[in-house]
Amino acid sequence: MRFLTLAIIAFLGAHLTAQANESSCSEILVRDYYLANPPRQPKREIGLYVGSYVPTPRIFDSFAEALASGLPFRIFRTEHRDEYNGPSGVLDSLVYPPTGHLKEPLTKAFDAFKKGEIDEAGLQDRLRELSAKNLRKYTDAASLDFEAYKKEISFSAWEKLGGINIAVVADSAVGDKFHVFSDLKEFTGLLTSGNYAIVEQSKITAGRFEIDPSMKADPDFASFTENPQIQWFEQNQLNVVQSAIKLYKKVRKLPRFDPRHVPIIEMQYVDGKVYFLQYHRTRDLERADFALPEKLEEGWVEAGYVRGVTPKDGVVVDVSLRELILPSLAQEFKSRDRAAYVFDGTRDKLISKSTTHHLRRTLLMKPRVSVSVDLEKVVGQEAYNEAVESVFGFEDEGPKLLKVRVVSDGKRAFVRAEPQ
User: Residue 324's Cα: distance from chain center in Å?
Assistant: First the structure.
């Protein structure tokens, strides 16, 4: 009897050890809870989880609760399971009370709901149609069924806060370096697109404002620098971004997230307080095992903007000037699979064009490496001019691609032309 008991104990012990080992292996293979358990509504579900650790806006249980809350503004945020580990900027969230070009159809939809003519599912259907105006461009590029994808869209109701909308991303290759994108439109009341700052060791080492092109024709252009909110932001920017980075670090280390990952975390800064809005995956940390010298041999051109690392011998990519001049949602598809994104121009030009542009932010943060360089200097005037002409349809063969090699250690990068 004693022998049988010991055998049973040994069997159970071995079984439990195997289960523990299996659990441990699963944890090693999938360190991110939401990759293993994809949420149907990632913004809401992750917002509720993160909200137990850091401030978030109020998240409503239902549309009826949101509309009855009496808050000045509410936002009905798009939800799709892809929005955690897939594309960003494909769908448009909707604000209540409605404004802008969607004011009339949105007002009709909400009025019908409040009168009981449609239920919450019916309101979701109407909002889905209004938010998906750019969706087909993405589904076509990704070879996805448009109607099937659209049916999976839903909405969660949130309190809409004022202040400054901020997105923070830790650099994937350099420690204690962060990319901070600030949308200042609502904060300033001006047609200002925003600011992109690079923060290294608690210091802003690069940064640019972007002004909406329509404002440049405004005779009262001086109002931009004279605006008291702009002046306040310039004086307090370091404190603002440091507060945002502090929240970023805290959220990134929460148990359900992989600490090796460098997500885009969206947040809202209001009167000195920072609120979490969204966690969106980009890529994992990757450090270089080599260091580039200050100069390489003739033919290599040093990049101005650098984010990410390549192997020691670099990567070869085809650069499309059409993509650079005429960016489209098609570039969002498989952006994380790109070996390199090469922008034609200076670092300041790239930064100023990336302050609040979802697609440009994607192309900076999701490929393995992203750089800016003078492509004409890299490939030569003749090849460059041929590529420019092909963008505008002067060549029957379609857009001409420029083949280049990029090598980067995360701090410095170089680009050179490769045989076509």
Answer: 18
Distances 60 to 51, 66, 155, 411 between C-alpha atoms, Å: 13, 6, 11, 44
Per-residue pLDDT of the chain (420 residues; tens, 9 = 90+): 443 443 433 434 434 333 433 333 344 456 899 999 999 999 999 999 999 999 999 999 999 999 999 999 999 999 999 999 998 888 889 999 998 889 999 999 999 999 999 999 999 999 999 998 888 888 998 899 999 999 999 999 999 999 999 999 999 999 999 999 999 888 887 766 689 999 999 999 998 887 655 555 455 555 566 778 888 999 999 999 999 999 999 999 999 999 999 999 999 999 999 999 999 999 999 999 999 999 999 999 999 999 999 999 999 999 988 888 777 777 887 888 999 999 999 999 898 888 877 778 888 999 999 999 999 999 999 999 988 888 876 555 667 899 999 999 999 999 999 998
How far, in Å, CA of 207 to CA of 336, rounded?
A: 25
Please give the single-letter amino acid code of residue 16.
L
Compute CA 208 distance to the chain's CA centroid, rounded to the nearest angstrom.
18
Both structure tokens of 227: 């605006």
E strand map for 272-385: 273-284, 301-302, 305-308, 315-320, 341-344, 369-373
DSSP string, 182-224: EE-HHHHSSSEEEEEEEEETTEEEEEEEEE-GGGGG-TTTTHH
CB 285 within 8 A of CB 262: yes
377-385 CB contacts, 8 Å cutoff, 24+ apart:
377/301, 378/301, 378/402, 378/404, 378/415, 378/416, 378/417, 379/404, 379/417, 380/417, 383/417, 383/420
* Pairing, β 341-344 against β 369-373: parallel
CA atoms within 13 A on the CB side of 57: 27
> How many whole angstroms separate alpha carbon 350 and alpha carbon 199?
16
Considering the entire predicted model, what is its pTM? 0.88
107/18 Cα distance (integer angstroms): 58
